[in-house]
Amino acid sequence: xxxxxxxxLGRFAAMxxxxxxxxxxxxxxxxxxxxxxxxxxxxxxxxxxFRRIMTLWxxxxxxxxxDQGTAASRARITREDFAQRMVQLDWLPSGEINPRFxxxxxxxxxxxxxxxxxxxxxxxxxxxxFAKDQTVQLLLEDGQWRIDLIQLIRSPxxx
Length: 159
Known about the structure:
This protein has helices at residues 3-32, 36-58, 62-67, 71-76, 79-88, 149-154; strands spanning 91-93, 102-108, 111-122, 130-141, 144-147.
């Protein structure tokens, strides 16, 4: 065979290998995306975790609430400092969050954004409640949905 034919066969073989690898990669990526049922299950688990977090906060159980924080946020603040900062807040969530205003937004298997209208009450003036629409990121770490503790400290002031 002539060199030009061998060169052309080599180029064709290289293109075939690249095309096959890309097609296999795309099929693998598509298979990695969750179906609607699995995505709904992920969102449901994140909603339950968010409700548990809000209950701990409402009941002022700050050491347990700290355990629900992401590793990154726990690295930024100690358990004692977190509890102290939470005690110093003037506002607490009040009551259950209306399911009509609780919307999980799936991003990845390990990340869900929770949109919620959180009702707040003032610790010192119970007659001045309000609700605020907030979006909170939940991350799946070690099989558990976790929240940014720093965002909780800044609530309800963060946008």
